Amino acid sequence: MKLAARIGAALCLLFAAFATPGCAADQARPYRDEAISADVRILPRAPVEGEAFGGLSGIEWDPVGDRLIAVSDRGAVFALPFDIAAPIERVGRLQAPKEIIDAEAIRRAPDGGWLVVFEVGDLLAGYAPGVDSLSGPPKWTRDLAKLGRIPFNGGIESLTPLDGERWLILTETGAGDRRKGWILHGANATAFEYEAPDGFQPTDAATLPNGDVLVLERRFNGIVPPFFSAKLARIDAKSLKGDEAFIQAAERVDLSGWLPSENWEGLAIVRRAGVFDLWFVSDDNFIGIQRSLLARIPVHALFPGMAED
Fold first, then answer.
1. How many Cβ atoms from other residues are within 10 Å of residue 27's Cβ?
2. Is the peptide bond before 226 cis (omega within 30 degrees of 0)?
3. In a domain, 45, yes or no
């Protein structure tokens, strides 16, 4: 989250604390709100194996362990089970050059390894297969700052594969309604601009089986509730051939009514038992009255007829 917005969020949420008590849950529990359509759970605040829990900014499905792997603003890695009764596990801490720790997105690589984007430092790091490798040094790194001017602490937050060789990355902030993006293909990078209107900022992206890309967009609204708004944009695969200078979403779904108002930053597509689900995670910024939430929405509920076996 952009630094100014983070400070603003802290102040306005502290102002609202008297009316909105924070969650001090010791264990994951369902979110009970009849107006919310998704399966939402509140994640615990307690440290996990001595590691402060919170600040979750990116998630990805680990099909080997059948769980979600989450990375945090402080470089921690956690395993989030699908079973709400199962405990959260500490995987370890990410290693990257120059003590860069602000991980914002994680995705599986075609070889079963992992790719992680670090916002502060503008770094892309590749890790070997196996969740334990995320606690070791990366196999390789790429300096994304060389792609062009990237705003400090408002930089790259989204990473998703377009096919076996190309990857899409998006920045969080930009000029007006435009956000910078690149399509990476080996050592090459093609720049484009992505339209995110009405003050929304891309916070993560994931690719559907048909090649369409979903972009999670979040807006901080200020001191008047709801403090955060979220949308899910769909980019048609035909718009991602690699030579477009400007990319627009084919459609957007307003997630209010689906998800509680929170700082939603992570998105993953999970296929289990032939069913495709979207999983979302919120970043509490380690602010006591924000919450770490984990939510599930079936893909077909938001985009009927898509991603079905």
1. 12
2. yes
3. yes
In a domain, residue 190? The reply is: yes
The pair of structure tokens assigned to 305 is 């007829």
Instruction: Evaluate whether residue 91 is within a structural domain.
Output: yes
Residues 6 or more apart in contact with residue 294 via CB below 8 angstroms:
28, 40, 41, 43, 68, 80, 279, 280, 281
Show the domain range for 153. Answer: 3-302
pLDDT (tens digit, 0 to 9) for every residue of the chain, 309 residues total? 454 445 455 544 554 444 343 444 457 999 999 899 999 999 999 999 999 999 999 999 999 999 999 999 999 999 999 999 999 999 999 988 777 789 999 999 999 999 999 988 889 999 999 999 999 999 999 999 888 777 665 689 999 999 879 999 999 978 889 999 999 999 999 999 999 999 999 999 999 999 999 999 999 999 888 999 999 999 999 999 878 899 999 999 999 999 999 999 999 999 999 899 999 999 999 998 899 999 999 999 999 977 555
Q: Which amino acid, residue 116?
A: V
Kindly report the CATH number assigned to the domain that includes residue 141. Answer: 2.115.10
Tokens, residue 107:
């995705």
Please count the structural domains in the chain.
1
What's the order of all strands across the beta sheet hosting 89-93? Answer: 56-62, 67-72, 76-81, 89-93
Two tokens, residue 289: 């009255």
Q: Does 308 fall in a domain?
A: no
